[in-house]
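Quick one:
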Amino acid sequence: MMQKSHGWLFLALVSSLLQSSTRDNGHFYRATHFWDEPRLEKDFLSSLDITFAGGWTKKGHNGNGDTVELLNIYGLHNMHQLGLNVPGKDLTTQEDIALTLLSLVPSRDSFGKLEFSGSFETTEANFAWTQNFIRGFFFQAHLPVRQLQITNIKFVDKSPTDCKFPNKNTPQWQMFLNLFNAILKKYNVSIANIKRTGIGDTTFLLGWTRNYEETEEIDLIDVTFKTGFLAPTSRIKNEDLAFDIPLGYNGHWAIPASLDIAIGAYDWLTVGAHLSGLFFFNKTRLIRMQTSVEQNGFIKLAKGCALIDPGSLWHASGYLKADHVAQGLSLLLGYSLMHKNEDELTPVDTRSFNATAANSDEMLQGWQSHTLHFMIEYDFTKEESKVGPRVGLFFDYLVGGKRVFKTSMIGLGFGLEIMWNF
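Output:
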């Protein structure tokens, strides 16, 4: 058993380099970052954590978990019924005539469907400050800064190539393809590349932690609870850019809550678990919605106001950590399951928008990801030191999921613990 006078130092050394969990962390477009380990119960301890990470992919996982082209995670884009029930169509224009004639053609296999592909790239920095008070209470603030890009966007016609009707050469389909760009322009929809840079959503948390060391068979048992609020400080999605991605949670306030538990043994082994939820508030906003259950994909022509009820975001994780197996060197292996519940829309204009059609959108059905975490960290803290710097490398490998981009992340992190004398 370690000496109690050095207890704060030992726990500071095993605290995680990466700071995530009940914050702006879980997103469909990249692997989940590692979460917080239990907080050290030391009065007035301050911690600064900074990470930099990046990832790139051309692939994703669809609703069945299969690997598909990046922009096909919601299935093929059904252009056959793109114009069905769209309000305000003008049948004196060639664009709306093309939409209407195409919708009257009988359905068949993948007729009128496009497969979109592209390249996704993201870079991200995370800044977290944690300040202990007394009796285990602490405050934590987190701010991400990220850049998201989708480039090389293109599509392939998946319509049948045989002689049965309808097929790739059906006149109504060829008319639509010839006017596709004009149709998108008429409805103010762009399928151009995107590049977004800015801050994500800011999180402020209050927590309570307990480090229990009065044990015989094991070294310690740590428990930490956190809750607070997530403020929508990030840029929301541009509804006129079909493939745009919000930099945070698209303008929604949220209440986070988390529980972290860790058990230490043999003076070097830590086993931990994490469970958290992010509970979003409703918001009414002007968005693009499906007008038929037959529609599918990122591209939608109709826009209207709707009450958005976002599904909660859940994170369950576990890890093994070898602490200071060679002086200040530590190794970590972890796993995360991230699950986003489905969203629900309530259109304001019920004459123009049917709730059943709007909520049949595959993009609203939630998502799930499985991530393996690998980390190597070196802690430079010396015994009795009041300042503890550390540095590490990490790799978040996205093993699989549903309706997610297949983006694994690699990064570098820096941490600093400061003990104040009062």
